[in-house]
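FORM 7B: Structural annotation worksheet

SECTION A. Query
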Amino acid sequence: MTPSKLSAARLPDFHIRPDPDDGRLSQAVFGIDQDGKRVDLRVVNERALTLFLNAQEIVTMMTIGDRPDLLAVGYLLNQNMLRPDDIITGIDHDEDLEVVVVRTERATNYEEKMKKRVRTSGCAQGTVFGDVMDRFDEIALDPDARIHTSWLYALTKKINTQPSLYLSAGAIHGCVLCQEDRAVAYMEDVGRHNAVDKIAGWMWLDKVSPADKIFYTTGRLTSEMVIKTAMMGIPILVSRSGFTAWGVELARKVGLTLIGRARGQRFVVLSGAERVVYDMDARDADGEDPRHARKGARAGEASS
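SECTION B. Predicted structure
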């Protein structure tokens, strides 16, 4: 898969974003704190969603339940079950039955493929099918893509101060598709792989080019995150969290720029450093406001 060399049209900030006020996604509960006092808080809802491709059941996912159409299409794309030239004739979601059906013009049968699953390190039981790595070896990411440090500092601040389910309820991952210093599409879910798949589905359905994009995640830079980002054709992957060795190895193999521990004025590049343009002194960037620091941030900074 070779991304288009043409720069995509400029997209607005937060063209699509989380809705922390959506009452279906979280609920109020109360408990008792360390002093024996009542505390009231919100927790995210978690529900099952069974995905069918035409007449074949593919997987049951645990998800917060928003944007099931994007999640379904993105999952099928990232598992190499939808081809770039496939025509989707319908996406049907039944909320009561907790089922989403993607219908394609092409007849599909993945019975043999379903026998070759690999459980990944993603939370909420992520899976990757065995033949995905065959396609991974054919990926060519745009070597001319760039990320400016000024964009990186602006993005980390913008994303972490954006109203979200994480800030209102916690226990959730966020992924953001970015273009230069703009956060274009922001998705959240209980598993980071679900958030990635929602963005993949949105990009495919809206015909958004990946060649000039940056992918941001709150989660670890694991093999799964590297594989999915590369499969989407996005050349730059950023996280406020750390790395796994296999994630780094795969990023170097495919030529993906891998930036981790991106918090406030800090970041580390372990792959594809040639795409980074140092146009801003780190000392001129804003530090991370403790009110918006995500879990483990201060501990991570102390040890890194």
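SECTION C. Observations
The first helix runs from residue 68 to 78. DSSP finds eight helices and 16 strands in the chain.

SECTION D. Sign-off
Analyst initials: ____
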